[in-house]
Model the fold of this input.
Amino acid sequence: MGPVFWGCLLLWSLCMTPTQATYAGIKARVTQRALDFGVQAGMEMMEQIVKEKNIPDLKGSETVEFLKIDYANYNFSNIKIHAFSFPNTSLAFVPGVGIRALTNHGTANVSADWEVRTPLFHDRGGANLLLSGVYFTGVILPTRLAFGHPALGLQDCHAQVSHAHVSFVGELSALYNTFSDPLEKLILKNLNAMLCPIISGEVEALNANLSSLEVLTKIDNFTLLDCSLTSPPEITEQYLDLNLKGVFLPLDDLADPPLSPEPFELPERLDSMLYIGVSKSVLQSASLAHFTAGAFSVTLSTREISEHFLLNSQGIGSVLSRIADLYILSQPLVLRIMATEPPVVHLQPGNFTLDIPASVVVLTQRRNATEVEPIVSMDFVASTSVGLAILGQRLVCSLSLNRFRLSLPESNRSDIKVLRFENILSSILHFGVLPLANKKLQQGFPLPRPYNVSLVNSDIEVLEGFILISTDLKYEMSSKQQPTFHGWGDVNWIRRPGSGQPAP
Done:
């Protein structure tokens, strides 16, 4: 039964981080193919776990009627599961309810050391136990708790083991094996009474893991990502949909931004295991959060500009000489470029663009002076195309300049020709600023990757008002590895105020 729940947790943790939510900016769809993958991956995980798992000793006392013994105190220790098989295990959606789990014809081989004390004798030895005809069915109920935390429930649990065969080892094994039949019936009686409570305990343990997930994800030095559930999952016959908040927040201000997402629907596709739709509002909140945090500002010295222009056929001289001609200055130049408003996101089918309203100040530092002084300031709007790709387990972006429009203050129009500076600053943006930005963007953003699960056959496309990621999943784990939750790679997790933990 364990693989079923490990598989569910695996799929669940792919899609969410918890907190209280107000609207959905991200939609995630889990298909039947993902459920089938969850079963397969869950089996592989359990095979790794059970071989190294330390099972607590089982102690108790029973009346052994067939031996006319009033009581027998027993202790099973060093319990090891050597092999198990659940050949017929499946997960299927129950519309409007949850996910039905079913396994039958399961088997397990268990070994243990035993010790028995009775009024008549005391003995110890070893035994092997073969369980067969293992059957379980139940409905797993995914839901949403306070602060957007995900949770699992279990209903209609029915579990039993049809057969148990005990084989004793040791000097008196032949004698004990003679009385194994009544002992096997006792084991089945007690085991079948315990199975559903044990499974319910496993579900509660998974809920403890889910509730321990942090609320906000630290994406970079400027922003956090709130990606909590906004509503309980929606379940149909073919898929499960998750509505997630998906809002970027500045590190020093965790108030929700004044943005309202436009509704969007995922396309009716089932070919991939997982679909994730990221709405325009999520990207706009990222733009606003970074702008509020002061991320869209860069100061370039002559040396920094040169490092990028020297790699280009135009060369640094052809550009800076134009500025020198205008000002006849021998002092080093400094360019300070900053966004004046949050960049505006546009998503059209196959086209992702950013309009960046900004200003540029050209400064210089005269000889023997300690402060820089401005030469001229200008406002401009740069329209850039955004390229998207999934490389490995990261989302990688790149920027390219489409259009550049410069406007000068009235006080400067008599001294400077707008067209000449448009050409100069367009070149600086194209060959200086954007390469700096792309160098950082090429590092990419880590995608969710729990339990050594990799994204494979991934695709990303821009649709009307949202970005759609389609991907399959692959599970890999060496024989020495134990599954641990990796979440968003090496990013930090931070709780939101009101969740009982300190905020940053």
Q: What stands out?
A: The CA atoms of residues 224 and 384 lie 24 Å apart. The first strand starts at residue 26 and ends at 31. Helices lie at 2-14, 32-52, 173-178, 180-211, 280-292, 302-309, 315-327, 418-441. The mean pLDDT is 77.
